[in-house]
Amino acid sequence: MSDAPVSQADVQATIAQLWIYPVKSCAGMSVTEAELTPTGLAWDRAWMVVDAAGRFVTQRELPRMVLIQPAFRMGQLVLRAPGMLALHLSLEAAEFPRRVKVWNDEVDAWDMGDVAAQWFSDFLGPDAPEHLRQLRLVRFDPEVRRLCDAKWTGGRESVTQFADGFGLLVTSEASVDSVNTRLQAAGAPVIDQRRFRPNVVLGGVEAHDEDRIGRWRIAAEGGTAVLENVKPCVRCPIPDIDPETALSSHAVTDTLQVSRQDPRMGGRLTFGMNAIMREGDGVIVRIGQVVDADWQFD
Q: How far apart are CA 93 and CA 80, in angstroms?
C-alpha cells in the first residue's frame, strides 16, 4: 500500500501553463517556471508604456502593443516588433524618476530613457491618436507599495506592480475550451489563452472551476505557496484582439455576452479570477505541479 498522504483538498488541479508579461499590455512570455513574489510572478508587469502626461497606455488604445514580443537574454530585457531592430534594456537600468498613473493610482516609477521612448514611439506612434504619438517606457519602483483593493482582499494588505489591480490572473484550460466550443458553433475561429492574458492556467478542472476556488496551495521548491482567488476579472475589449495580427473582431465578446454576464460584478462580462499571494515569497512554481484547492461559494 502507498504511504503517500491523501489530499484533503476539495479539488486537485495541475499548473498547465505559466505566463508573464514584462511590459504591461505587450505580448506575454510562456515560461516553464517562475518565482512567486508578493506582487505576483517575478518580472510580471514590471514595465509600462505611458503617454507624455505619464498616464498608462494599453491595447485598448493601441492594439499593436500585442505585437511587441519580450524575452530575457543575458541580464537584459529584449523587445522585438515587426519592422524594428530589437530594443535591449539592462535589467539593472533606469534613467530618472517619473510620476505615472495606472488607473486611479499615481505612483513613483523610473523612466527608461530616450532610446526606449523613441523605439515605442516609432513603432506605435505613427497610427496613434495625436496625444499618443510620443510615448515613454517606465519601470516600477520596487520601493513603492501599490496596494490591491482591500474590499476584495478581505482587508488584508496585498500589493501589485503595474497589473490592473491584483498580482495574478488565473484561468483554466477547460474555460477556454468552453469558449472555443461556442466560437466554433458560431463559425468563428478558435482562440487560445493569450486572449485572456493569464498568469496561471489550471489543468484538470471543469470549465470555470477557477470561479469557485478560494485558496489554493502548491507544494513547490522552496516551500509551499498559498494563493487565493479574490475577484472575478471583468473583461474589456482586449480579448477581441488577435495576438498574431493585432486586428480586432467582436467574436469573443459576443460569445462571453451569452454565457459570462456575472451577477457578482453587476452583470458585466468576466473571465478568469484575480488572485493574490498569501504565502510563498521566493517559491518557484512550475508547469506540472499539483494544486490543492478549496471551494469557496458565496
A: 18
